[in-house]
Amino acid sequence: MNSTGGITIVDVGCPLCGSDDRQPILEELEDVEDRVPGRYVVSFCVSCGLIYLSRRPTPESLPLCYPAHYHIRDPVRRNLLPRFLYGLRLQSRYRRLRNAVGSNCHALLEIGCGDGSLLRLLDEKLPGECVLTGIDLSVPQTDSVRHPRLTFVQGEFEKVDFPVKYDAVVMLHVLEHLADPLASLKKISHQLQTGGVLLGEVPSWSSLWRRVFPRHWQGLAIPRHQIYFDALSLRNMLSAAGYDVIHITPSYDPGDLSVTLCNWITDTLKLRTPSRQAWFYFPTAILSAPIVWLANIRPCNSGAIQFAARKR
């Protein structure tokens, strides 16, 4: 155990099976995106095959790993072009939700709701009787007159008892952040109605760009990401938590290459500007989009995995 910049760093066993039998894959890793201090290790669990951050911050230190400029809070997202691009992504996520849940949804929870953009879109799209709740470590203000059915809860999901059972829970790029994802998935199951649906998305360890830029891959997000999933390990985790998998499929994510390239450029040139705030970030994202589309013709090259699972 040691402490760097107020962050306590420890060595841990596998979050899925508990084994301490592991093989390091990447050592002496640093945060090339947000410059959180410390050196970290990604390991492979010999017992169950899970890939995880074995040298990591303690759960109590994790909030310190999200700086004020963390990209979810970044005001640049409100500019015209970023807002348009994020809007396309939100529409895609809404269609996935509609296909998985249908119209029979009376209560929905989003874990890791960020700025609340998806919930505000759902407020426009879903039937009026559907209750919408979001939770995150930092939540937006909402207009209770314009959005009376929207509720935002600030805090850690694992420490909050919600008064209702949900028909659907959404967690987009959240599962990889959790110190004990198996325990969190079990708690989510308790909040779901029987037959309720969990929808999510995580970075894919199989990403082509992870293999090309192993220490600058955006999916590493050292030390905020705790687990690195492929389709098999994600299926095993969901099954162990009591879910029947509906589907696990590759997801088109142009940011997988653009953020990776920006991480590499800013780190190589020793720029002080965070990768996603660099002037070349959105031009890189636009130029990367067709390259990523071509790479994703082979599903094993995809930068993200989307999943849907049903509570048993």
What is the class in the CATH system? Alpha Beta
Largest sheet: 7 strands, mixed
Q: H/E element string?
A: EEEEEHEHEEEHEHEHEHHE
- Please, how many domains? 1
Q: Which architecture does the CATH hierarchy give at level 2? A: 3-Layer(aba) Sandwich
- The CATH topology corresponds to Rossmann fold
The geometry reads as globular
Question: Could you list some keywords that capture this structure?
Answer:
single chain, 312 residues, alpha/beta, Rossmann fold, seven-stranded mixed β-sheet, six-stranded antiparallel β-sheet, 13 strands, 28% helix
Q: If you had to describe this structure to a student in words, what would you say it looks like?
A:
The protein is an alpha/beta fold. It has a single domain (66-311), classed as Rossmann fold. 28% of the residues lie in helices and 27% in strands. The protein is built from seven helices and 13 strands. It has helices at residues 80-101, 117-125, 181-191, 208-212, 231-240, 255-268, 281-295, and strands at residues 2-4, 7-11, 22-29, 40-45, 51-57, 107-111, 131-136, 150-154, 166-172, 192-203, 227-228, 243-251, 304-311. The strands form two sheets. It has a seven-stranded mixed β-sheet, sandwiched between helices. Strands 1, 2, 3, 4, 5 and 11 form a six-stranded antiparallel β-sheet that branches. Helix 1 (80-101) packs across helix 2 (117-125) and helix 6 packs across helix 7. It starts with a strand and ends with a strand.
